[in-house]
Amino acid sequence: MTSMTAPKTAPTEERVTPGRTRSTLAGRLIPYGYLSPTVLLIVVLMVVPIVMVIGYSFQDNVIVQENPVFAGFANYAKVLTDPDFLAALENTAIFITVSTVAHLVLGLAFAMMLNTQLLGGVTKAVFRIVYILPWLFTIAVIAVIWRLLLDPSGVVNYVLHTLGLVQEGVNWLGDPGKALWAVTFVNIWSGYPFFMISLLAALQGIPHHLYEAAAMDGANWFQRFTHVTLPQLRPVIVSMGVLDLIWTSQQFALIWMTTGGGPLHATEMLSTYTYKQAFSEYEFATASAAAVIVLLLTMILAFFYVRQQRER
């Protein structure tokens, strides 16, 4: 008895037509087409200006003269040895450090108060409105309000004089010994609501059973705060802290509209120093070098932020 075997057929190759190839290529390019407007804006508004500023920082007499001269690192040496720049660097370090720590402490304190079960719903709603008000104002409005409040004949001095804490009006924004702390206080007041909202959302995301387990183990409120609340909030606190350092280091409008960097450079920041070099002294090469230094410092902070986000 013979077995019948089916004849083998040769594999057929699928024929790819030119129209199908074009269709596949077009499908692959569609996502890049959607991204192209955003990429174009980034290149035009960010990449090109940054490259131009870096180029200006290595030249002398840029913009104001037709034929600038290559200066190498002379502009960087001039900036790094300028006493005004060093004072601005110190003021900026104090400003951003105190502001960030105060934002964190106040934001966490108010967030925990709004998250507590001891307050009723109506009371929490009222406090939410009151605490978030500083974040709703623009920098221009905040600067005008606090210039009036901190005026020697303003409300702050009136209250302090009524309480017997001062004998005469204090020029908070005009005294070199007090101006930096005054603008730092204003920046703290205007910036803590963002921390408060972010930390409140993080607090409401902590599982309640963690607190119940800690209470069953005999932990008091402080131990629950240090061993449950803070570890759960750590990723948010670190992210917000690094972002606040970056944002505060670039603060310009508040300083410019309250003190202008004075008196006697007491509130001079890196941002106001760079602005004055460009548009008051018309030293665009020096301003470019200062801007590049600020960019490098900001990129260091951004590196830590990105690394922390990857660890999460």
Task: Quickly list its features.
globular; 12 helices; mainly alpha; two-stranded antiparallel ribbon; 2 domains; 312 residues; MetI-like fold
Which series of helices and strands comes N to C? Answer: HEEHHHHHHHHHHH
Which word captures the global form? globular
In the CATH hierarchy, what is the architecture of the largest domain at level 2? Orthogonal Bundle
Instruction: Give the radius of gyration.
Output: 29 Å
Structural class: mainly alpha
Total domain units: 2
Helix content: over 70%
Detailed description of the structure:
The protein has helices at residues 18-57, 74-80, 83-115, 121-136, 139-149, 155-162, 179-204, 208-216, 221-249, 253-258, 270-279, 284-311, and strands at residues 59-60, 69-70. With 312 residues, it is an all-alpha fold. The protein has two domains: 23-70; 80-311, MetI-like fold, CATH 1.10.3720.10. It has a two-stranded antiparallel sheet with strand order 1-2. Strand 1 (59-60) and strand 2 form a beta hairpin. Helix 4 (121-136) crosses helix 7 (179-204) and helix 11 runs antiparallel to helix 12. The radius of gyration is 29 Å and the shape is globular. The model has no long low-confidence stretch (mean pLDDT 86).
Describe the secondary structure blueprint for this structure.
Elements: H1 18-57, E1 59-60, E2 69-70, H2 74-80, H3 83-115, H4 121-136, H5 139-149, H6 155-162, H7 179-204, H8 208-216, H9 221-249, H10 253-258, H11 270-279, H12 284-311
Domain ABC transmembrane type-1: 89-305
Subcellular location: Cell membrane
Family: Belongs to the binding-protein-dependent transport system permease family.
